[in-house]
Each structure stands twice: as structure tokens, then as C-alpha cells.
Amino acid sequence: MALQATSLLPSALSTSKEAKLSASLKDSSFFGVSFSDYVKADFASSSLKCKKECNSKRAIRAQTIAVATPGVTRSVSEQKKTLREGSVIITGASSGLGLATAKALAETGKWYVIMACRDFLKAERAAKSAGMSKENYTIMHLDLASLDSVRQFVDNFRRSGRPLDVLVCNAAVYQPTARQPSFTAEGFELSVGTNHLGHFLLSRLLLPDLNKSDYPSRRLIIVGSITGNTNTLAGNVPPKANLGDMRGLAGGLNGLNSSAMIDGGDFDGAKAYKDSKVCNMLTMQEFHRRYYEDTGITFASLYPGCIATTGLFREHIPLFRLLFPPFQRFITKGFVSEEDAGKRLAQVVSDPSLTKSGVYWSWNKASASFENQLSQEASDPEKARKIWEISEKLVGLA
Ligand SMILES: NC(=O)c1ccc[n+]([C@@H]2O[C@H](COP(=O)([O-])OP(=O)(O)OC[C@H]3O[C@@H](n4cnc5c(N)ncnc54)[C@H](OP(=O)(O)O)[C@@H]3O)[C@@H](O)[C@H]2O)c1
């Protein structure tokens, strides 16, 4: 496939929002590091079963309609509790952002990291070569492209007896050059099946565990992306994310009697990834609307910046992989290193000043975190509700 000129367009933050939010910019210096990357670019090619799940000490109440605007800060008493070592699950911690985040957290000595990975050996080698100390992490098998594996992971994690303080849904697949869809074990198109449905089941099943935790600030973080946001330049590079009326998702994304695409259209691997990221960001907000008030759990998403060197682009054509990092580094200046992106995500996991729920975090040119604005579709409460309801049927929760 030829490298398209459009695929190298710089992306940009919603500038109006950036201006509006300048007042709320925070000094995001983390672990003594001051970041200096731009956040304006991403790669650019392209009545609920809650009660059953929630047998924990606090009741988690399901609501069928949106009740709160995302973005509420719970402060005070949380800070007063004694801080023990935190326990965080990070999916896809065998490379890229997930590995860098695992390393950043483990290095503090304040976090025990459960690396939830599909390839045990790869994860073990990655942790070793990152210099992570064995006492700060463990690896548990999780294949998000299999709902059985997700359920098995949850069972195994519970058997470990560890508390769950923070869950980071980070893993993703991106198939920009695929001509035909591929599918998960249950027959869902792979990108949406892995990035959204696998994480949806995982986070729904682990919500009671998070709710049981006595850690001062419990968080559920789902990694988003600028590419799913059509209020940015990057989000406007074709093919654009668009969930449409979600007829494909409702049909099971199986490519047989329904389309493999959420909107019911023809398969496009790059679009499937972007659509999956919209689902991630909408799911975070729906969690916030349904559970924040009753649980105090912080629900957040983020765009970590353009980490042009990660394995996410492994299926892209070689020329793209060669030119993309220098293009982002020198032309758009949107490049962020894996290490710095990991520190950003680690901030969202652990920084006491980032406890606001319902927020999509980004970082400005001075690498200060700020609450970014999602596109109309990625913040549509009706779509979020519909995705939630369809998804819980698909993963067997309803
Ligand atoms: N790179 C960027 O510029 C960028 C920008 C915005 C957002 N993001 C987001 O950042 C997150 C991490 O991406 P990355 O750039 O760090 O890419 P990456 O290095 O390819 O990491 C993706 C991780 O997901 C894992 N994974 C894939 N399929 C899985 C499955 N079925 N079950 C369990 N794990 C699976 C991979 O495991 P294996 O090691 O076994 O393949 C890998 O560890 C993604 O959510 C992505 O959307 C990235």
C-alpha cells in the first residue's frame, strides 16, 4: 500500500479548548521530570447486571440514563488515609506505552504492577530489559481477543489475593493495512473486539474489586486517542472515526450476517481502530455517569501524545515506519518518547492532583496536563449508553 500524503498530516489539539483550558493547566512535573513535548500530534493514517457483579462493601448502582456531566472532583478524606503500596493492573504491558508505564510506576517502589499480557515470555523479557525489579511486578496471562481468557484472568487475579487499586486498559491492536477483517475467538472484528469489547468485559468484571479497595484513590483508566476525535486535525485524516447508528456492532461485527464495522460499512482496518478508540473514550464517560457518584472511583481517559516508535505501527508499511518518527519529531513536533508517555500515563494512575473523574487528559506544549475536549461523537451520552448496552449483550453480561 502506498504511503498516503494525508497519513503524514500533523494532528492538532482543539485549539479553542486549549485556550479555554489554559487557566486549568497544571504543573505536571512527575518524578522530578519536566516534559517538553508537544501533544498536538498523533499518528495519522489513517438494570444492568451490576448488582450481580457488585457484591462488595459499597453498592454500585446502575443507572440507565446519564445523570452527571463528566468531570467531578472528589477530594478531601481520600488523602488522609495511610498510603500502602498500590496495586495496578496494566493490560498490554509487554511493550510501548504499557511497558513504559509499568516501569515508571514500579521504579517508585510505591506500586506493584500486574502486567496483563498475552505473551508471557515477551513480557518477562521486556520487564527484564526495562530493568524492572522482580519484587515490583508479576505477569499474568490475558488475551483480550478471547472473552474466556478475560474471565480466566479475572479468576486468576482474584486467586492471587492482591487488592486492585487501579486498572489501566492500555492494550490495543491496529491494522491499518489489512484488506480483510480478522476476528477474535468469539468472532468479533479484531480491533474493536480487542480494544473495546475485551476491555469492556475486563473492566466490568473488575469494578467490584476496585470498589472493594481501601486505597485512597481508586482509578479505572482507558487509554484513548486523538485519532478518534474529529475535533482535531489528526481526527480528520481519512478514514475518520464514525460509529453511525451502530448497526454493525448490534449485529455482532462478525462480517457474516452483519458488517465487521461498527457503522455497518465496508471493512477498513484504520477506521476500525479509530472507532474502537471512540468506544474506549465513550465507555470511560459512561462508567463515570453510572458509577462515580456511588463509588468514588475515578474514571479517566487520555491521549498520551504521538509515541511514533511503538509496536502499534508494526503492521504499517516499512516506509511509513521509517518516516513517521522523524516526521513527528521534526515536522509536527508532536513526538513523545515511550519513556515520557509512560510517565504521563503513570501520572494519571498515581498523581494526587489528577483525581477528577470523567476527564480525558492531554498534555500541552510545556507538558502540563490539562482536561481536553472530546469530539461531539466521542462525548455523545446517547451513543455512550447505546454502546454500553450493546456491548454488555455481546460480552454476555446482559
Ligand atoms: N503509539 C501512539 O502514538 C499512540 C497514540 C495514542 C494512543 N495510543 C494508545 O496507547 C496504547 C498502547 O499502544 P502502544 O503504542 O504502546 O502500542 P504497542 O507497543 O503495540 O502496545 C500494545 C500492547 O497491546 C498488547 N495487545 C495487543 N493485542 C492484545 C491482546 N489480544 N491481548 C492482550 N494484549 C494485547 C500488545 O501485546 P504484544 O506485545 O503481545 O503484541 C502490546 O503489549 C493503545 O491503547 C493505543 O491505542 C498510542
Automatic annotation (TrEMBL):
Pathway: Porphyrin-containing compound metabolism; chlorophyll biosynthesis. Pfam families: adh_short. It catalyses: chlorophyllide a + NADP(+) = protochlorophyllide a + NADPH + H(+). Keywords: Chlorophyll biosynthesis, Chloroplast, NADP, Oxidoreductase, Photosynthesis, Plastid, Transit peptide. One of its GO terms (cellular component) is chloroplast. One of its GO terms (biological process) is chlorophyll biosynthetic process. Its main location: plastid. Its EC number is 1.3.1.33. It is found in: Plastid, Chloroplast. It is an enzyme of class 1 (oxidoreductase). One of its GO terms (molecular function) is protochlorophyllide reductase activity. Phototransformation of protochlorophyllide (Pchlide) to chlorophyllide (Chlide). Belongs to the short-chain dehydrogenases/reductases (SDR) family. POR subfamily. This is NADPH-protochlorophyllide oxidoreductase. It comes from Carnegiea gigantea.
